[in-house]
């Protein structure tokens, strides 16, 4: 059986080129664990994104821990509960359908400059992923109180009882991510 691995799920309009994904991948590579890190480009269509993630999970040869940022955290929570996995959630979009309903129309990926139409159908696909109950022991929650996009208190409440690191200040990008990489790697069993 292969060793543990990390499957990183980026946020809305993001990509594997996000600074957090790159940094985590680089740190793992420097420790000789580069082959244990996966960060796919997720489709902007929720149903398609989840199908590709579930295919990756099905082909896993060892235990997988999800690391999800923003919308990736919303996906990670649903997947963790469905597939009995652990997950690190970084400024997760706890109320993703409500948040993203305000972003209907043409969107541009921050890294690739590709455009896509975000529709009501996509919001409904997100709504179908609502996970009313979570298992606190599965999660490591990382939030910054200065997140300008999401109210960090929603995540603190939703994941009550989980291991939580709540840092004052910062922003939605989670500015102190580099400091938290050792805790993430430890939580993921690497």
TrEMBL record:
DNA repair as UniProt keyword: no
Pfam families: UPF0227
Keywords, comma-separated and alphabetical: Hydrolase
GO molecular function: hydrolase activity
UniProt keyword Hydrolase present: yes
Protein name in the entry: Alpha/beta fold hydrolase
Organism: Candidatus Accumulibacter affinis
Lineage of the organism: Bacteria, Pseudomonadati, Pseudomonadota, Betaproteobacteria, Candidatus Accumulibacter
């Amino acid at each position: 059986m292969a060793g543990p691995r990390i499957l990183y799920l980026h946020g809305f309009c993001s990509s594997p080129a996000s600074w957090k994904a790159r940094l985590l991948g680089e740190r793992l590579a420097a420790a000789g664990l580069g082959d244990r890190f996966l960060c796919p480009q997720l489709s902007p269509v929720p149903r398609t994104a989840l199908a590709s993630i579930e295919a990756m999970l099905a082909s896993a040869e060892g235990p997988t821990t999800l690391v999800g940022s923003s919308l990736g955290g919303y996906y990670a929570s649903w997947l963790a509960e469905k597939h009995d996995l652990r997950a690190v959630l970084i400024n997760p979009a706890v109320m993703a359908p409500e948040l993203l309903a305000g972003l209907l129309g043409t969107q541009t990926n921050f890294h690739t400059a590709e455009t896509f139409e975000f529709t009501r159908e996509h919001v409904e696909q997100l709504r179908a992923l609502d996970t009313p109950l979570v298992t606190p022991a599965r999660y490591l929650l990382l939030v910054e109180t200065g997140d300008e996009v999401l109210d960090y208190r929603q995540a603190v409440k939703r994941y009550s009882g989980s291991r939580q690191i709540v840092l004052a200040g910062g922003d939605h990008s989670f500015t102190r991510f580099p400091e938290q990489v050792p805790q993430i790697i430890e939580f993921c069993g690497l």
